[in-house]
Amino acid sequence: MRDTHYVPIARWKSQSNFWKDFFSYKFRMRALFGPNASRPFEKVDEALRSFTALAYTRYESIRGERVELGDDPAFRKEIDAAVWGLPSAQDKIGPLLHAAIREMEDICIPIVQNDSPFSALLRRWNQRQEKIMRRFVRKS
């Protein structure tokens, strides 16, 4: 049983390079887009710290076949829901991540839409059409 509860911890550890790279963007985003651009990273950091704390708590609470987290099954269920991503009325991690995603989308989507290759192509096409129309109007 204890080995099963080590899986989320092992996954988190195996992704350490990803998380280092991810959080390195926090300061770049702040420098480029202002202080509000780092807020999504703070929410993700809080969610990740909550997850790791709960995962370690649950893992360390199991000694052999004994469960030392107390006799409160609701508390164990709440921790398991957070660690394993199960639906829970007490979910604190999911809302943090959803808020971080919304905030990051609010920052990035307008940038991507304005600077996408398709947008640049469309702008050039529109400029060319305007140029052609101006020539046509002058000749008329």
Describe the 3D structure.
α1 runs antiparallel to α3, α3 packs across α4 and α3 runs antiparallel to α5. A hairpin with a 2-residue loop joins β1 and β2. The chain is 79% helix and 3% strand. The radius of gyration is 25 Å and the shape is elongated. With 140 residues, the chain is mostly helical. It has 6 helices and 2 strands. A two-stranded antiparallel ribbon has the order 1-2. The protein has one domain.
Care to give the gist of this entry?
The chain has helices spanning 2-14, 16-33, 39-60, 73-84, 93-115, 117-139; strands at 62-63, 66-67.
Keywords:
single chain; 140 residues; mainly alpha; two-stranded antiparallel ribbon; 6 helices; 2 strands; 3% strand; elongated
Question: Helix and strand layout, with pairings?
Answer:
Layout: H1 2-14, H2 16-33, H3 39-60, E1 62-63, E2 66-67, H4 73-84, H5 93-115, H6 117-139
Antiparallel strand pairs: 1-2
Question: Over the alpha carbons, how many angstroms does the gyration radius reach?
Answer: 25 Å
Point out poorly predicted stretches.
Answer: none
Strand content: under 5%
Please count the helical segments: 6
Number of strands: 2
Total individual domains: 1
Helix vs. strand class? mainly alpha
Helical proportion?
A: over 70%
The termini sit apart by 84 Å
Spatial order of the strands forming the largest sheet: 1-2
> For the residues shown, what is the average pLDDT?
83
